[in-house]
Amino acid sequence: MVHMVHDEVQTLEDRDSVERTSGSTSSTDVPSWRIGDKWTYETQFDVARLIAQANVSATLNTLTGDTVYEVEDIFFITVNGVQTLAYKLKIEGDFSSGNNGATLDVPGFGLVSGRLDIEYTGEDIIRVRDHAVINSEFELDVDFVPYNIGLFRQNLADINFDTYYNPPKEKYDFPLRTGDQWYMPFMSGTSVSGSSDYFDPQEFDTNGAENNSWQVTKDGIPTEDGTNIKYEGCDNSYKINEWNASGVNSGFNWYCPAVRFNSWIRISNAAGFTIDWLLKDYEPVDSFGVDKRKNPGARNVEIEVDTQFIATLPDTMSKIYATYAVAPNGIPEVNKNLQLRYEMTGTLLNPITNSSGQIEESINVSNVTDDTIASDDYSSNGVIVWDPVQEIIGVATVVIDLSVVAIDLVAQEDSIIVTRTRSGETATLSKSIGYNALPGDTLTFSLPAQNRGVLASPSTEMEVVVPGSQAIRQAVPSIDAYSEQRILVDWIVPEGTTIGNQNLTFTVDPDELITDDANRSNNQAMVSVFIGRAPNASITIDSGNYTFEQVFIDARASFDSDGGDVECRFEIESRPGLVDIITTPDCFVNWNWSDDGDWELRTIVTDDELDSTVLINNVTILNRAPFVNLSHPTEVAVESTITIDASDSGDVDTISPSGQQVSISWPDLICQEGLTQPTCTFTPMEEGVMPIRAVATDDDGAETEVLSSIEVYNVAPTIGDIEVWIAGVNTPFDANGTWILREDQTVTLRAQGSDTLNDRDGLIIDWNLSDVLDNFTASTDGSASDFET
To answer: Is 664:742 a contact under the CB 8 Å cutoff?
Structure first.
């Protein structure tokens, strides 16, 4: 349905709609800070992916706390040979998961619940003239408190991230207005240092060329997913989205002119964490009328800087005005030595305020350009007027345009904002990789009618032609100098739309009624949208694999039916709470698991247009049985104690704590240590080969049985001393060991033999008295032997 939104609603055609946004788009220029300015942000720190990618099992709540940004210093720094005025911004925050908000795999203890705490300290170096980031450094001190008991606190990581940008990264391109889009190639490198028992911090080092893009995609109250900030005075914020060279969104910030900084910041760091900062308090120094929750008040003393023209041609002279005054009555600061800095050309002037607290200087804006390729100007260069003694700064932007005319209506293609809604999720698209969609998507185009002239333009119309539709017209009111009006167009991509480009055209003043328009060649623009298809995802996975056995995961059969290459991202559940992430253009990976079970594998196949298809599979890994190694003597004397040792046993895929991986049982043996100990001490009572059987059971219930044997050998019998009994009395021998007997005296000879229990009943004791009585021998059965002679 198409709506002409002004005084009435008119139905023109199904599925498409057009409406005009209300009011002219305003702009905001670069702010100035003071030492001591302070912003407090409610902070949400999602570190789960950082922990997971570091191969640490974890389940985590989002960490919360407050972060304080404070301007600590204003100083000079040399950037690419240019003396540059900069702010030092100190950042400090403490975040916590709350008690029992984190569960980590602690070595020696397994999964333990407790509290995760992060201390965040950082320092950003910000260029004064345009708020570009020169350097950003921060440190994360990550602690885990098992069982929420501080005595057990463990340090998981203490990591420092130090990032440079060359040239400085322009996250803003002042003056800002909705729809502005800019690109910037730069070199960036992050050096990561510190220590952790869980991962090597240097794994996160990066260095190389980048080419990011930004666009102001919204203005108004900062809102994301139904959430608003607590600060009440930022209803006129500008949302700036950021994309990397691949078109991947790397975060956003809502810039709030009232607080001279951001009302909401989100960064997504490649190291694996996402942070949201939502403004709650703003405390500007040297100000009156401040309510830190909703009103910034006004500075007591301020330098206001203005330029002579809204825009100027390259290599022209332009006047710079500044007023140095005390609020609220505007009392002038007279005879103050100021400095004017136009750092783009190295221009430094030292004016003195007059009786009105004002200065006026002329500078050549030159043809030098800033480092951003922008949709709205040739270059935008900051000019600073400041009091070096009091460190009070004023700043404004000199806008350089290649054509400065009275009225120039432009259908500004580079300022189009395109959002796409798919399956209930809305995303802002980046022009850097081209706009694209799938059948069934809803595309919303915010089409700008700009006036690039220095005078207001008369009211007119915009004509829009949506793919496959008739021309639609919408009224456009008067547009102020260097401002714009916007038309919103919705297009639902029909099912079955042919693969290829679909074009939307829009024309400002289609009937050419505004005769003062200096350049009609830019009144029409076209935006091309590639209509493709989601990639076809296909995967094969080895089956029947055991733990620690390589599993070949093959998604190479995946392809993009609309042409181009695909990339695969494997999210592998490798153990409870731990997901390893592997991204590869080869679309295959070898992986092994250290524990058995069913593990989830998510495969995301993404094409050149960043369309993706997700496959979810379970990989079944089989358990490995435990191993048992026995050590013992090969032989032992019967009725002697022996120990069988199975300490060299274990389970390679156990998840149990050390020493509890397996239990050993000893069937058929009675062990002194008990039933399930790694050693078994016992006494064999019979001679011969004795079988030994040990059974190891792991934490999955799998068993391994090992058989061995020992040779139990015979022990020779023993016999005690011979006793001589006479008339029932044991007669001792004399000092020479001799019994003295009378001839024909009857005596009883007695001896006690001994043998093992098994041989005792068959014991025979032989007596041989041949040296006393000729050929006298005797034998008795049993261990006790008596006979008379």
So the answer is: no
Query: Coil, helix or strand for 53?
Result: helix
Residue 644: alpha-carbon gap to chain centroid? 51
Strand 545-546 versus strand 612-622 pairing type: parallel
Helices (H), 509-623: none
Q: Which fold has domain 406-531?
A: Immunoglobulin-like (2.60.40)
The whole-number pLDDT of residue 697 equals 92
- By C-alpha distance, which of 583, 288, 247 is closest to 431? 247
For the whole model, what pTM was predicted? 0.77
Nearest alpha-carbon partner for 555 in 531, 515, 582: 582
Cβ burial of 726 (10 Å; 0-12, 13-18, 19+) is middle
Question: Which CATH number is associated with domain 627-713?
Answer: 2.60.40.10
Q: Rounded distance, CA 297 to CA 540, Å?
A: 64
| Residue 249 bridge partners (DSSP) | 243
Judged by DSSP in three states, 202 sits in helix
CA distance 730 to 732: 6
Query: Identity (one letter) of the amino acid at 528?
Result: S
Q: Does domain 540-622 have CATH number 2.60.40.10?
A: yes
Phi and psi for 53 in degrees, rounded to 5? -70, -20
Phi, psi of 179 (to 5 degrees): 100, -25
For residue range 715-765, what is the model confidence (pLDDT) as tens digits?
Answer: 778 887 788 888 778 888 877 778 777 777 788 878 887 777 777 777 887
In what helix (H) or strand (E) does residue 49 lie, and over which residues does it extend?
helix 48-53
Beta-strand runs (E) in 170-292: 176-177, 181-196, 206-220, 223-224, 227-228, 237-243, 249-256, 261-269, 273-283, 287-288
Rounded to whole angstroms, the Cα distance separating 180 from 417 reads: 9
Q: How many angstroms separate the CA atoms of 545 and 78, rounded? A: 60
- Element of type H or E holding 50: helix 48-53
Nearest to 96 by CA among 116, 113, 114: 116
Q: Comparing C-alpha atoms, which of 280, 278, 312 is closest to residue 294?
A: 280
**3-class DSSP state for residue 42?**
strand
Look up residue 48 and give its DSSP letter. Answer: H
**pLDDT tens digits for range 250-274:** 899 999 999 999 999 998 866 677 8
Residues 159, 164, 165, 166, Cα dihedral to 10°? -160
Residues 6 or more apart whose CB falls under 8 angstroms from that of 743 comprise: none
**Dist CA 541 CA 590 (whole Å):** 10
CATH architecture assignment, domain 301-400 = Sandwich (2.60)
CB contact at 8 A, 147 and 114: yes
Contacts of 516 (CB under 8 A, 6+ apart): 406, 407, 457
Contact (Cβ atoms closer than 8 angstroms) between residue 692 and residue 669: yes
Cβ partners under 8 Å of residue 480, min gap 6: 24, 451, 456
Report residue 236: phi and psi, to 5°.
-115, 45
> Helices marked H in 376-462 — which ranges?
none
Query: Which residues lie below 8 Å from residue 14, measured CB to CB, with a gap of 6+?
Result: 1
